[in-house]
Amino acid sequence: MSDAIVVGSGPNGLVAAVALAQQGLAVTVLEAAEEIGGGARSSELTVPGVLHDHCSAVHPMAVASPFLRTLGLERYGLEWAWPEVDLAHPLDSGRAAVLVRSIERTAAGLGADGAAWQRLFGPLAESYDELCDDLLGPVLKLPRHPVHVARFGLTALQPATLIARRWRTEEARALFAGVAAHLFHRLSGPMSGAVGLMLTAAGHRYGWPVARGGSQALTDALAALLKDLGGTVETGVRVRSLAQLPPADAVVLDVAPGAAADICGDRLPPRVRRAYRRWQHGPAAFKVDLAVEGGVPWLNPDCGRAGTVHLGGPLEEVVHAERETSLGRMPERPFVLLAQQYLADPGRSAGNVHPVYAYAHVPHGYSGDATGVVLDRIEQFAPGLRERIVGTSVRGTTALQAYNPNYVGGDIVTGANTAWQVALRPRPALDPYRTGIPGVVLCSAATPPGAGTHGMSGYHAAQSVLRQLGERRR
Predict the structure, then answer these.
(1) Residue 356 covered by a domain
(2) pLDDT of 288-315, one tens digit each?
(3) In 206-296, alpha helices (H)
(4) Which domain, by its residues, includes 28?
(5) CATH assignment of the domain containing 241
(6) pLDDT at 1 over 60
(7) What is the pLDDT of residues 199-222, one digit of tens each?
(8) How many domains does the chain have?
(9) Contact, 413 vs 61, CB < 8 A?
(10) CA proximity to 83, closest of 115, 50, 60
């Protein structure tokens, strides 16, 4: 029997482990922390009985993941839960743009822009599964659904700011800008609209659900499946070099490229080492978790029903804030993502005290305290919030990296989403998961298809391992 070692137990590491174990490999996962899960962990961060997600929180990509959907994780306790409203984006006027799973209802709420919204996202939502088959993997390959990919690509290559010109109303433009801001990069560059297109289409195809019981439920389900497949997990084991690992047929690294260069050392081919060392990290997150008595006092009632709320103001304000953080400057009014997972999953609350998840986009390695800025941003649309807060937990960029070393400088997407890095992550190669060392592959979010709790980087890295093992046997 072949054996494999997976370094890192984030969603990609666990998915890689499961995919290899399904093919009969004896798999051991090594995790440096005392708890598994990487960004997909949950605990009581503020007050007893109030459950918070540490990083990964809302899961349109997980519920739509081509590989995760094959695993039957509901047998291991994973259950998806949907809020009444998937996403709201409030504006200074008191109005709010709203996205729900029904594209017809979403379009109706956008007034004069409803038809244009439906023309763009209707076909994308209908072909979303086919798009995932092709786009959630290596870029340099022949697509299985070329017509769908070509139609998507013609729009996705455009800047988000150009795509937004399709709409005239402040609501539609802001709604798309907020989703596009998940890119964590300036929205005026080429390909900057791709993330906004995919996440919006995912919302209309599957919605933006949460995992009942916290994102940890996804981690626990994958770990339970791995155990049933004969795999094992060891925590508290920090891998600093390949030399400290026992002999194995394959090693899968769920780490950032710089860490992979450290672990592999001189065994890396020089061209790969240079590529890993050149890997750029991008803007960061500053995370604030709140325990709020009675919930957030939103001015707009749609925000009080939304699982996710984007606090970015109009399109122009979102674009400006993302440009500033990309240039290393802290904006006065940063983009803030807020989640109210308890609306879909009431068990996360303790009586009338509810968990509220928020993070601001800040410059890479930002050393200041953005807590007040985040609270001000929320209170802009929910005055009186501070009086309801009964518990707070803060993680700045340094704390985020300490929590998960892949979040270098607080970069929770494991790499700057420049056009070059999006297209050719982590280096130009037909098999971007290979490190150049036989049997050693990279599977973190720095590899295609990039960030998001979908596990597809881990799945494709596992397929690379299996191809290499097959080559050795021939």
Answers:
(1) no
(2) 999 999 999 999 999 999 999 999 999 9
(3) 216-228, 257-264, 270-278
(4) 3-41+211-280+412-473
(5) 3.50.50.60
(6) no
(7) 999 999 999 999 999 999 999 999
(8) 1
(9) no
(10) 60
